[in-house]
Amino acid sequence: MYDFGLVGLGVMGRNFILNVADNGFSAFGYDLDAEKVNSLKNEGGNLEQVDASTNIKTFVKNLKQPRKIMLLVPAGKVVDAVIESLLPHIDKGDIIIDGGNSFFTDTDRREATLQNRGINFFGAGVSGGAKGARKGPSIMPGGSKSAYEHIKPIFEAVSAKYNGEPCVAYLGPKSAGNYVKMVHNGIEYGLMQLTSEIYDVLRKGGDHDNDELHDIFASWNAGRLQSFLVEITSEIFKQEDTLVKGRLVDQILDKAKQKGTGKWTSQNAMDLGIPVPSIDVAVSMREISALKDERIKADALYDRPTVQHMEKAQLTDLSEKALYFSFIVTYAQGLHQLADASKEYGYQLDISVIAKIWRAGCIIRAGLLADITEAFKAEPALPNLLLSATFVDKIKDTVDAARKLVAFGATNGIPLPGLSNSLTYFDAYTSSKLPLNLIQAQRDYFGSHTYERLDREGIFHTEWEA
Ligand code: 6PG
């Protein structure tokens, strides 16, 4: 009998099941595709501990009870179909874990339906791509706390480790895990947009070539910007193309695709009334990038300023600071959203635990997350990272560079929307006085919507004189 079952032997599933076996737990896989079942053992690993079948009955029969069945299949209808196909064969007390990027309300629906039938359902975000799935991902599970005890030893063994600590923890009930993974991806979109802007400003504003870009990002990765995304960015600039002479990055079409998790983060932030402009604009930029044909036409219609190059060392220094600043601001927005969603949906999230399990394994892992973990440990109810004493000096040290870089981009026609939204968010969030008193006056003027006053309590309306 096997300790763990896995449905879906695609790239993620195959790597995850082999990881389970590598860590001493026996695992049985299931996929309708015989090719995937047969090739499972081609990649090496602890193969005595792993097997698979195309037959669902064989799959289920081979699992120890309570069965722990993880699904790594595409989000959406496939998840419902797999659950339906499992139900006739499994028993009360068994556990189904959805490891995909499912929309959180789908997870709530599935959890409620399955709970009625005595089945425990988990939405568990898994981050780290194929390599992470095999070598140690960050795992974000949500569901029944008592049922988690059954999967905890396996998840802790397979997850990434940060100073020996597993990058997995029980996060909360219902869709807490999927929700946290969704916001993880929103932050991921934000950080990716920011790195792409820095790349643009360095190549257009400082004429840095790919070798220099490699060196710059590699040196940043050895400093306070240490992170998976900065690290892979440095490596990307080195990759030679195999079809034409030169670097691959220069041949890749500048249209970014998306599967929806960044957009969901923005949409839900709007629903909650939590501002996440660095994430919003990252989604918008993928949308603008998709309009390649229109962009080409529009480019021909308008003149752009001639770029006034900045001295390389100065530009690099400003860029490092601006990127660090805007990374902090982007994490701040995402974590703010999580804290608010936790109240709204009853997740009881501990933000320090989330930051802790993001320190390794996941796409947004970064040195910064160690500081973020400490900040939320010290002040669990911290409404916003920008209010943390740990971060005040880091922001003060870098905000002026962000201003200079955003101004440089605006003057030279280099679009830096992620950086400027991060800066604007910071300026607005740290303004004790905003001009929104005027908006209240306008609302009252044209619609008698009323307003409050600075100097006394109450709700007021004025018959505005023309
Ligand atoms: C991860 C990633 C992953 C996501 C990809 C693609 O944490 O491993 O977030 O789950 O699917 O990043 O996302 P987009 O196609 O939307 O860019």
Draw up the topology in text.
Blueprint: E1 4-7, H1 11-22, E2 27-30, H2 34-39, E3 50-53, H3 56-61, E4 68-71, H4 77-86, E5 95-98, H5 104-116, E6 120-127, H6 129-135, E7 138-142, H7 145-158, E8 161-162, E9 165-166, H8 176-206, H9 210-221, H10 228-236, H11 261-272, H12 277-290, H13 292-301, H14 312-345, H15 351-357, H16 368-378, H17 389-412, H18 417-429, H19 436-447
Parallel strand pairs: 1-2, 1-4, 2-3, 4-5, 5-6
Antiparallel strand pairs: 6-7, 8-9
6-phosphogluconic acid (6PG) binds at residues 101, 127-129, 185, 188, 257-259, 261-262, 362-363.
What report would you give on this structure?
It is a single chain. With 466 residues, the chain is an alpha/beta fold. It has 3 domains: 171 residues, NAD(P)-binding Rossmann-like Domain (Rossmann fold); 249 residues, N-(1-d-carboxylethyl)-l-norvaline Dehydrogenase, domain 2, CATH 1.10.1040.10; 32 residues, Single alpha-helices involved in coiled-coils or other helix-helix interfaces. 55% of the residues lie in helices and 8% in strands. It is built from 19 helices and 9 strands. The strands form 2 sheets. Strands 3-2-1-4-5-6-7 form a 7-stranded mixed beta sheet, with helices on both faces. A two-stranded antiparallel sheet has the order 8-9. α11 packs across α12. The radius of gyration is 25 Å and the shape is globular. The termini are far apart. The mean pLDDT is 97. The protein binds 6-phosphogluconic acid (6PG). The site of 6-phosphogluconic acid has 13 residues, from α8 and α11. The site of 6-phosphogluconic acid (6PG) has 13 residues, from α8 and α11. It catalyses: 6-phospho-D-gluconate + NADP(+) = D-ribulose 5-phosphate + CO2 + NADPH. Keywords: Gluconate utilization, NADP, Oxidoreductase, Pentose shunt.
